[in-house]
Amino acid sequence: MGIFDGLPVPSDKTYLREELARIDESWAVARFDSLPHVVHILTSKDREADILLLREQSDVVEEVVDEVVHAYHGGFNKAIQNYSQILRLFSESTDKIGDLKHDLAEAKKSLGTRNKQLHQLWYRSVTLRHIIALLDQIEGIAKVPSRIEKLIADKQFYAAIQVYLQSSLMLEREGLQTVGALQDVRSELAKLRGALFFKILDDLHAHLYNRGEYSSVASSIYERDDEVPTTTAVAASRMSSQPLSRRTRTLKGDSQFGVRGLTNGSHITASTEEGSSFDGHEEDSVEYDEATADGQTIRNGADSKLLSYQLPPWLSDSTPDEFIEAVRKSDDPLHVKYLQTLVQCLCMLGKVAAAGAIICQKLRPTIHEIIISKIKAHMETKNLSKSASSQGDRTGAAGLHLIKGQSEAYRLSKEKQQNGISNSGTHLAVSPVSPLMAPGGKAQAAAKDLLDSILDTIVKIFENHVVVGELLELRASQHDINTPKSLPTDMNWNTDSDASQATGGYTISFPLTVLQSECQQLICEILRATPEAASADAAAQTAKLAKKAPKKDKRQVTDAPEDGLTFTFRFTDATVSISNQVGADLIRQGWGKRASNSSQEGYGSAAVLPEQGIYLAASIYRPILQFTDKITSMLPKKHSQLVNDGLLTFTENFVKDHLLPTMFVDYRKGVQQAISSAAAFRPRAHSTTYTPTVEKGRPILQGLLAIDLLAKEVLGWAQAMPKFSTDLVKYVQTFLERTFERCRTSYMEAVLEKLSYRLIGRHDIERLMRLDAASACLPSQLGHSVSHSEAVGSEVELIELFLSLPSIKQDNLIRDDNKLILLASLSDSLEYVADSIESLGQAVPRAASQAEDNSRNQAASPRNLASFADEYRKLATDCLKVLRVEMQLETVFHLQEMTNREYLEDEDAEEPDDFVISLTSQITRRDEGMAPFISGEKRNYVFGGICGIAARASIKALADMRSINLFGVQQICRNTIALEQAMAAIPYVDGDSVQQNLDRVRTYYELLNMPFEALLAFIAEHDQLFTPTEYANLLKVNVPGRDTPPDAQIRLSEILSH
């Protein structure tokens, strides 16, 4: 961009811009040097051309200058005219100022002659204005009582107190003290102070217990109608300061409390309860409906920030000051702001001590009344729900009768047999508690629901007390809150300088103590226990209280809760030192009446609970734990030690010192009853087939079924009370150990001194049975998987061991079928209990905090229960092993009659031998007896070893036979067919294996019908079908009609050696 681009050249002379662009910018520098240009012209070859060029450029510049002058000519003229006008105005102003000075000098001279008269007139006007203002003030003060009454009626308490304090200050002014017409106003203001105090106290009392206008209704107006929010009461101290504007910092008064109280308060939550506003003149029970609302929860996020800084409606008529500014800027919920306002009003009135004393006095009766109303509401809800499903309406007593009637119907229905087995009947016979009182029963659920509802209400009430308590403690730490600076000193309302006395004995510790004490009384009523039962040192604690609170101090109970005493006694109502005049005021206002023994009466929980008793401690433990956690999180740090000896400690001591010992004794009796009764180990089945589930009729022994139910019940208590799960698991271990010993005794009674029991105890036989493929179905794993060849080899070796035993006598066998059926049922029952124990061991709860030794024991609890399961399974396996070996020995016992006899029959065999008939009938009878008690694969295990050993015994018996003929061979074949038919009747036995084993026997004995040469030819072709010994036995036995050469054994050996 060139230096001449901004010149005002008209559009018709655009060529001037082109000409200017050709001019070197060196001609326009600030310090122009003409020497180079002159030298250039002088040294140029064409001087005339250069000079002509310079003249043309000069003409262009002059023409441009003309255009610029023409363009700015009007502006230059107008500027000159304006300047001339300014000079003219300045000249005229100078002349007028001179005239004004002259006039002022003349006026001064004229006024100076009457200075005294003017001064008198000014003084008279000032006096008249002061009188008029004083009269206006007197007229305004006369209207103050009616204005205050109107503000009280509109619940504008803060504005009413502002008007009251302002009027009181005005009445103390020097000019108004002697006005007699204002004496009536002073008297009315004194009365209004008391009325205002009690109105504020009424409203504070109502909002403390969530029954005020702003407790829930005002806090929930921004909630969605169909939304029921769930809030958790949490309180945390916020030690920050609220920045104030310069205007609010210049205000005077007692409003510093508003700033610090709002910024240091620990009020975050807004769980409140809806109900009717409290009337301090009545003592009747009030309906108490619960609701939850968060004052900071608005319809949407955009409105939340807007509404949080709006002025609350109860401060709409108040004069702006520091407190109102702090309330407007605070983010606390609506009900917290209202509590702060009421406390500020009490501080401004200077009646905090009286308010604290009255709140302390009414605390216990009100809490007692609220708990009763909650129980009544709970009962009415239940009655309505019951009446909706039944015909007709019922009163409260009829509702309770209905609940108990349903309890009996529940018991009868559970006692009905399910496929012939009454599990619940067994439960009722041995359990120390009814089904209603059992873990998860209706009584436990009802107690937990009731206590959850009541404790949730208590938590929300305590949240309000924390708000008020912190505000009062903060105010007490600043200055004397019972003597306002704006009022004359009232000695009746002054107390000691101690913070607790400054608040009338009301501190955070006092409501916490009373609330937990009332909850303790309710729990004792539910448990049917006395408060002294909570701890073994109740007397010592009471003595500790008496020692800390001398009789001469009437405020002993007020200060006692700060020491954090254990709840082993019932606290009395708080008393404070109040003057006679104040006491008369309290009685006149309805606050002096005591609750008519309401705190000494019960709560009526029996009307809503199906049953009461010590076992309900399990259902109240978790609500108490949650209640303590909420209270702990709500308390300021300096009061956190107050919960150390509170309701949770009471409950834990009660469980540890009373419930657990009682439970151990009761369940020990139940276990003893279950395992010692005559029917405990008596197999009972109402079906001919096995059912795998108890619900459908699995015939578990009644004793073991009862023990399983008791173990589940005790572990149910452990899940309800995780902290005491270690002790309860130890109880279960003790019960299981005693039950195992009883099962072991029954097992030994059946197998003692029997050959099968001795055999399974031998290490070589135990090893071979572990390798047997049939052992895979046993409850306990006896070893790792083995190959087929190893399994077959172990089975053959095991059979040879059994056949090598000395002659088996009848006394060596279990001849009583009932004992065998007992072993079968015991095995299945033990396996069922073992599976149940294992599953229960995995579900054993772990306590959050335990002592070091308890933690180690508890960590090992599932492993200990698993070890019990292993022991039960091992005993169940021993029962099955005894049954298998017993059936094999029975087979050997019957088949040993084949030895040392002659099978020289004279006719075809139509029936098997008697010993075979006896054996097959015994197999059929025992299978039918065991069928309902063991599964199919277990039946296969018990009876599956018969054919193998029968085949081996039949073949081996040939070596001891003296002679056998053709009919004898047919007889033996007939015996095998009978045995095969008996085994085929057992559904789960492997039919192919049975046929293969018995076909081998028939093949073997049919070889006796062959001539010698044909036999040798068969042996040559099937040398692996039988052993050399078995082939040799075929030649040794005497077969009539068969010619056997003398060298038969030698020729057989030659054939087998190839």
TrEMBL record:
GO terms for cellular component: exocyst. InterPro entries: Sec8/EXOC4 (IPR039682), Sec8_exocyst_N (IPR007191). Residues 263-284 are annotated as: Disordered. Residues 263-275 have a biased composition (Polar residues). Residues 16-151 form the Exocyst complex component Sec8 N-terminal domain. Belongs to the SEC8 family. Component of the exocyst complex involved in the docking of exocytic vesicles with fusion sites on the plasma membrane. This is Exocyst complex component Sec8. It comes from Eruca vesicaria subsp. sativa.
